[in-house]
Amino acid sequence: MLDWFDDIEDEDRLNQRPGTLQDVIEGFVHLGTRCELVAAIVQHDPINTMESVDRLLLSAGRLASRHQLHISEMLYTVIEHDSQWATRIRYQLLERELLPELIIRITVTFCNDEIVFLNGVFRDSPTWFMVQSANSISHFMKVKGRIFGEVERSVAEDDKVQLAMAIRALAGLVGYLGIKLNDAEIEKCLALLRTSKTERIVKLLLSVMLLSSEHAIRSQVSRANDGHRQLVLADIEIACTGRRALPTAANRRFGNADAIDGVFPNRSIRPDRSNGAICARYECGDT
After folding, report:
1. pTM for the full model?
2. Which listed residue, 106, 124, 252, 279, has the most CB atoms within 10 A of its CB?
3. DSSP-based helix, strand, coil % in the chain, nearest 5
4. Where residue 7 falls among pLDDT bands split at 50, 70, 90?
5. Quick one: pLDDT band at residue 202, thresholds 50, 70, 90?
6. What CA–CA distance (Å, rounded) separates 5 from 20?
7. Cβ atoms within 10 A of the Cβ of 256, count?
8. Can you tell me the distance from the alpha carbon of 149 to that of 140, in angstroms, rounded to the nearest whole number?
9. Are the C-beta atoms of 25 and 55 separated by less than 8 Å?
């Protein structure tokens, strides 16, 4: 294809008609076979692949936004056929502040360095990178899963540096990109918060919990309501049968309070049945 273009370009020079490789590459963008053409260049003309990639990147900054998806597909095709281009294309996209969705896709699929990469991105807090579509959610969910895997590995190996980087990347996902933590993930953070003795780790975990506070509080309230219903049923049973409620009934009501105790270790919780009411009384211990 490029040899054919060179011949045409030579004829254009003779006829004094302008023609550039940029015109050809941009022309590919408008064709339905755009990805097949790029794949052919990568497979059969590797010498010109670099220039073709540079032209595509230049086109991404020149063409209208409706063509961005096509250019993203073409660049991804280049990487699919030769993964050594992944790091270079990602770097060029970052430098030019282009195609944030493609950047995270490349990172998750080919680079596998999410934690280091996101720490670098969130340090500069680029607003252009935060503009992600719904298509990126699945990639960010994979990133979140890998971060929690790295947290578990770092805790097992007592690697505090890598643990801090993983939690910082998690805080960025939650704070900047709005990725939610589920109940199990919040419990993992709280469990680590209770056991960690490193100030840096504690501060990062508290940041994550503050960013996820609405969901965490809703989860705790829901569990508290479930326990309250169990206590009410236990009191009804006592009133109807005259039997003494099992101690475990009250324990269920406050069984999930260990999450609160982890953050506020001097606080104790006990049921108060004064005046026939069933409620929780919080008493702060000596500090």
Report:
1. 0.68
2. 106
3. 75, 5, 20
4. low
5. very high
6. 9
7. 16
8. 14
9. yes
